């Protein structure tokens, strides 16, 4: 008992420190749980059939130039899927969902978007694209993302980042005739 009363102050300090550590770790666990459930919620939205179809239209338009007609349902689907992708970027920028998880899951698709969004900017309808700063943020990170999985093996990553032949050919006349 003599030791306890002699070290009373140190013991109360240690107990106080322990209490701080416990509440800090509880707070960290809560933040992690919150980020996990936010990630699952946005993933659920990203993976609906509608969003998937919209994105497939975007990838096809980038690769082939085959874009849906103006004001068609398919064009709206493309725009909506890009808006939700942009929302994923915003949540990741604001630390609401972990960027590491977003990139791990989405980096192959984001790398494809390096070559535009499949819809040409239209001065008559600037609202239809209006830039996608949060999506652009994810695309830039996806370009630098290091991945050792099969999605990026055997030159697949480089293949996705390479300019599609369609765009390459479109740019060739300018490249070939400097000064004209
Ligand atoms: Zn990969």
Structure description:
The protein is mainly α and 180 residues long. The protein has one domain. It is 69% helix and 0% strand. The longest helix is centred in the N-terminal third of the chain and has 39 residues, at 8-46. It is elongated and about 85 Å long. It binds zinc ion. Zinc ion binds at residues 107-108, 147, 149, 151-152.
What's this, in brief?
With 180 residues, the chain is mainly α. It has helices at residues 2-6, 8-46, 49-64, 73-93, 99-112, 133-144, 156-161, 165-176.
Helix and strand layout, with pairings?
Blueprint (H helix, E strand, L loop, with lengths): L1 H5 L1 H39 L2 H16 L8 H21 L5 H14 L20 H12 L11 H6 L3 H12 L4
This protein binds zinc ion.
Zinc ion (ZN) binds next to helix 5.
How is the quaternary structure best described? single chain
Enumerate the distinct ligands. zinc ion
Instruction: Work out the count of structural domains.
Output: 1
Order of helices and strands: HHHHHHHH
User: Shape from CA axes?
Assistant: elongated
- Which class best fits the helix and strand makeup? mainly alpha
Helix content: 55-70%
- Distance from N terminus to C terminus (CA atoms, Å) equals 96 Å
Could you give a short account of the major beta sheet? Answer: none
Low confidence ranges: 172-180
Overall pLDDT confidence: 89
How much of the residues is beta strand, in percent?
Answer: under 5%
Q: Give the radius of gyration.
A: 25 Å
- What is the number of E strands? 0
Total number of helices = 8
């Amino acid at each position: 008992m003599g030791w306890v009363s002699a070290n009373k102050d140190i013991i109360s300090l240690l107990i106080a420190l322990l209490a701080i550590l416990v509440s800090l770790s509880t707070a960290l666990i809560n933040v992690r749980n919150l980020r996990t459930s936010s990630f699952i919620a946005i993933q659920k939205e990203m993976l609906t059939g509608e969003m998937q179809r919209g994105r497939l239209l975007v990838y096809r338009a980038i690769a082939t130039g085959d874009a849906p007609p103006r004001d068609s349902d398919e064009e709206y689907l493309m725009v909506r899927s890009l808006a939700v992708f942009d929302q994923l970027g915003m949540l990741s920028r604001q630390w609401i969902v972990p960027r590491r998880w977003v990139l791990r899951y989405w980096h192959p698709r984001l790398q494809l978007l390096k070559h535009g969004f499949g819809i040409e900017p239209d001065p008559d309808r600037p609202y239809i694209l209006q830039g996608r700063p949060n999506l652009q943020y994810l695309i830039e990170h996806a370009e630098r993302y290091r991945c050792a999985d099969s999605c990026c093996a055997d030159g697949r990553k480089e293949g996705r980042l390479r300019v599609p032949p369609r765009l390459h050919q479109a740019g060739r006349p300018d490249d070939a005739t400097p000064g004209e």
